[in-house]
């Protein structure tokens, strides 16, 4: 609709109806603003997500997001974790040999399982430890 059609409709409604319509539209606009602000406040940062889960898998990520994040590309998606987590896992791989699950902290078990399931680590028999592919 163009503005002349809008004016015709408002004239047909009358002054009190058009004022009521404007009030309702203002209420709707305010509710939308509140809903959008609440959604923005609920969105968590990448670091918060990683702290909660140990790692995240996302469809896109800014590779320059933070120097302490390790980003591994996987078939169109990206695994993101802290660089420290990778270094800690590597230390546990050195000490744990074929069974690092026995010594790593429980919060890293899902990450270790994910790495194994997706072929991002493998057991190197010569070195007697798990090794990262990337």
Task: Describe the fold and architecture.
A hairpin with a 2-residue loop joins strand 2 and strand 3 (77-82). With 134 residues, this protein is α+β, with helices and mostly antiparallel strands. The chain has 2 domains: 3-42; 46-132, no CATH class. The radius of gyration is 27 Å and the shape is rod-shaped. It is built from 5 helices and 5 strands, in the order H-H-H-E-E-E-H-H-E-E.
Quick description:
The chain is α+β, with helices and mostly antiparallel strands and 134 residues long. The chain has two domains: 3-42; 46-132, no CATH class.
> pLDDT below 50 for ≥5 consecutive residues: which ranges?
none
- % residues in beta strands: 15-25%
Helical content stands at: 40-55%
SSE succession: HHHEEEHHEE
Question: Residue-averaged pLDDT, rounded?
Answer: 83
Number of domains: 2
Q: Taking strands numbered 1, 2, ... along the chain, how are they ordered across the largest sheet?
A: 1-3-2
Which structural class matches the secondary elements? alpha+beta
| Radius of gyration over all CA atoms, rounded | 27 Å
What is the number of E strands?
5
Distance between the termini: 57 Å
């Amino acid at each position: 609709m163009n503005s002349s059609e809008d004016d015709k409709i408002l004239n047909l409604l009358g002054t009190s109806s058009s004022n009521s319509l404007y009030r309702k539209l203002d209420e709707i606009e305010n509710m939308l603003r509140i809903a959008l602000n609440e959604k923005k406040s609920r969105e968590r940062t990448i670091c918060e997500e990683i702290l909660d889960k140990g790692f995240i898998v996302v469809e896109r990520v800014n590779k320059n997001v933070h120097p302490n994040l390790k980003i591994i590309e996987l078939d169109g998606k990206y695994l993101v974790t802290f660089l420290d987590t990778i270094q800690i896992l590597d230390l546990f791989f050195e000490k744990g040999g074929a069974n690092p699950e026995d010594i790593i902290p429980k919060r890293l078990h899902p990450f270790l399982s994910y790495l194994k399931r997706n072929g991002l680590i493998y057991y190197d028999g010569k070195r007697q430890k798990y090794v990262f592919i990337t």
